[in-house]
Design goal:
The chain is α+β, with helices and mostly antiparallel strands. The chain contains 6 helices and 7 strands; from the N terminus they run αββββαββααβαα.
């Protein structure tokens, strides 16, 4: 993913964006010789403080064989996207895609013992179903416990996080705001989300520009 200096997302930004409820992404592993990457859409649980991502898949999933051969994987989360026609953006009239994307490059470890899989599932249940605290997975107990042999867990140790928020930050602020108006007028699915990101990024940029330089005092 190409990230320009003006659309790079910092850690606070991508953490806050994911914490809004973005916990579904595309997990990619390297395929064997002569094959492309193996891709799996999946929910995941991010523990950013530990630098760890938890996933579980059905045991026959082909991604698991790919991980056994090469444990280096990438998890990508992309959202808040919209197409901006060229005539919206001023000269030279180049169309563009607006989007936010966070990619985690990680080393995957398979979890195949029953206790380890139960731990992953219980942590995921606590995250995705907090309204059901009584729902727990124990090896060999209950319906969920009996399903464990058919699952494999994955612990992804994050090596690098790359975040991109592509919302025309290189354009003058007035052109960004005009683009936001266009998105509001068109009002297609996700246009409102893309517009909110554009305005947030524009507001951050304006605030940085207006802030006094380090070591100086604001006039009173």
């Amino acid at each position: 993913m190409l990230i320009r200096s003006w659309d790079r997302g910092d850690e606070d930004e991508w953490r806050a964006w994911l914490a809004e409820g973005r916990d579904f992404g595309l997990l990619a592993a390297n395929g064997g010789p002569g094959h492309g990457p193996v891709l799996v859409p999946t929910h995941f649980l991010l523990d950013a403080d530990r630098g760890e991502i938890l996933v579980h898949l059905a045991a026959p999933n082909p991604l698991l064989a790919a991980v056994r051969a090469d444990p280096e994987v990438t998890l990508a989360v992309t959202d808040d996207y919209a197409y901006a026609p060229g005539h919206w953006r001023g000269a030279p009239g180049t169309p563009t895609s607006l989007y936010a994307s966070v990619q985690f490059h990680a080393t995957a470890a398979l979890v195949e013992d029953a206790a380890g899989k139960a731990e992953i599932l219980n942590r995921q249940l606590a995250h995705f179903q907090p309204e059901s605290p009584q729902l727990r997975v124990a090896p060999g107990e209950g319906e969920l416990g009996r399903l464990l042999p058919g699952l494999t867990g994955l612990r992804l140790a994050v090596r690098e996080v790359r975040a991109k928020f592509k919302y025309d930050d290189k354009k003058p602020v007035d052109e960004q705001l005009a683009l936001a108006d266009r998105l509001a007028e068109r009002a297609r699915p996700l246009d409102a989300a893309a517009r909110a990101q554009l305005l947030r990024r524009s507001g951050r940029r304006t605030a940085r520009t207006a802030a006094p330089a380090p070591g100086t005092r604001a006039s009173t």
